[in-house]
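Section: Multi-chain targets

For targets with more than one molecule, the full set of components is provided together so that the structure can be written out for the assembly as a whole rather than chain by chain. Components appear in the order listed by the source. The example entry contains two components.
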Amino acid sequence: MSTIEKDLVTRSELADAIARRETELRDMKARLAEWEDAYASTPKREVSFSTISGREIHPLYTPEDHSGADFYLEDLGFPGEYPFTRGPYTTMYRTRLWTMRQFAGFATAEETNQRYKYLLEHGQTGLSVAFDFPTLMGYDSDHPRSLGEVGVCGVAISSLADMETLFEGIPLDQVSVSMTINGPAIILLAFYVAAAEKQGVSSKVLRGTVQNDILKEYQAQHAWIFPPEPALRCIVDMFEWCSDHAPKYNPISISGYHIREAGATAAQELAFTLRNGFEYVERGIARGLDVDAFAPRLSFFFDVHNDFFEEIAKFRAARRIWARGMRERYGAQDPDSWRLRTHAQTAGVSLTAQQAENNIVRVAYQAMAAALGGTQSLHTNSMDETLSLPTEKAVRIALRTQQILAYETGVPNTIDPLAGSYFIESLTDQLEAETMDIFRRVEELGGVVPGIEEGWFQQEISASAMRQQREIEAGQRLVVGVNAFTEGSEKVEIDTLKIDASVEERQKKRMADLRGRRDDARVESTLAVLREACLSGENLMSPILECARAYCTLFEIRHAMEEVFGSYKEPVFF
Amino acid sequence: MTESDQKIRVLVAKPGLDGHDRGAKVIASAFRDAGFEVIYTGLHQTPEMIVSAAVQEDVDVVAMSVLSGAHMTLFPRVKKLLDEAGADDVLLTGGGIIPEDDVATLEAQGIGRLFGPGTATTDAIAYIREWYASRELV
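Its structure, encoded as tokens over all components, is:
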């Protein structure tokens, strides 16, 4: 056959194929219309077929909603490839399962240190520090504002001395440590780096993450100290310092978790978090940093809530939106700058105090959604967290839940197994489109910081929380054990953990000892240098590290900065 | 809504350093929708700030939301300061993550009902209305 003849055959084959496809589509549409009639004329259960976020779900998804393969490379791509919808890494869980990283901390540094050693001896490879409320707000354990809260919801860390005790005997060159701290993050990072120095470990080898996401604190979690502009300056100082001195360390974990827990919908969580992420990128670029020098170390943290498919789609949409924004809008060249890596935690707010054992099941479904969404690490909540800090038994069950998921269900065997589902792809597209709409609204407000100052984010979140509460009270949304399938006796029959009331006194004594033995002149001089640096605009990491090394306390450092920066005043409304 | 409801003045307060205000805001909105006059303190209030606001606003009820585990310090402290300020007729109630044993201990100290997770806002509203109605009879 000549080339022309071959070409003619190919063309006629192509024409046939197109004709067959057209017929198929016409038939499909006709049959779909028939099915829709049949569906309409059949009685349905009288419940809301919407997600917990209020999204109406169709009875059926077809190629009409999403013809998955049409723009495969553009919209999905392969795992580890732009736009990363199918996963940030090429091999995903076939090379490494998600990290099972349970958040823990209570009482004093000494007690938490013992807990960490126990966890490490039992095969945990990373640690995740929960600080108490005084530490989260930058108060020392012996400050009057700390009364009653020392060591209650996490560990109390008021100086380098406490940080040294926290990691005593734990080699910081080998263990990756995640720290959930925001308002005073720059101070706690300095304590951590100084504690590593004491072990003879250079900051160059430190691996781990500091949450350091102040924007979501103003929007949802509320552990702030300074106003937005100086707080953002500290964050960019940390990006800059880490890219030079701690290249393996993640200087931020941009967090949707708290936004969602405060009441946001899935789309709001996604949009606010990614918009906050882009805000940090813009601030870094505005400082003159090369986007590819810091963007690869930005990490994320999402909630994984009850609505199974919507949550899976949320993780997929997050990766695609971030990749597109970083490449197309911010001009990042390094694929690591496009690649969204995330931690996930099951939804604390979904747990019930009533029939608390049922929470084990809720957590298991949520954990499965996180794995199907392609998370890099996961914390599973304990069943008793609506009652108190978790007991050891409850934490063990939560960890075992992840192990069953990883080793028994087969979920990690194939990468992004739900891709190509008309429903999942349609949800992923919808969440992306809704995120873009919210981005436009934020721009209309003048950006993230004006939106916070006006209380816009806070009001959006509260309105969603109120809607969910109304739906539950009206019986439109059923919560097992709360407004459906309740049991006569509300008596809780599970053990709870009690924090020893002597913690506050012991911690106060440690503080008194520290204040007695340190070099006061060095404390004063390093704080004076820090105040100067706050005024001059130089990078604050080095002067804060000097304060840490001199055993200045958390509150002393906070206070010195506050004298220059002022403190944040929230817009109060409900 | 009855006419007497219009008069019920409630201070919704977030004591301590705990930033979890979802519950406080939901309950404040529900109280307002029920016809109460509601003042919300905002976050990070000391017991002194709360009692001072309660006295200044002449409220009937102080409803505190505590999810930090510091309830055994904060409720008795606010109760004591209210009593010292001559506001011992103010109902101190609240909610949060408060174990049952602690609820019993606090109620024995003259603190009103404390509501746990999963409470319907209508239950809290009904409780305050009943308390208010019985108080007027005294």
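Residues 3-40 of chain A form the longest helix (38 residues).
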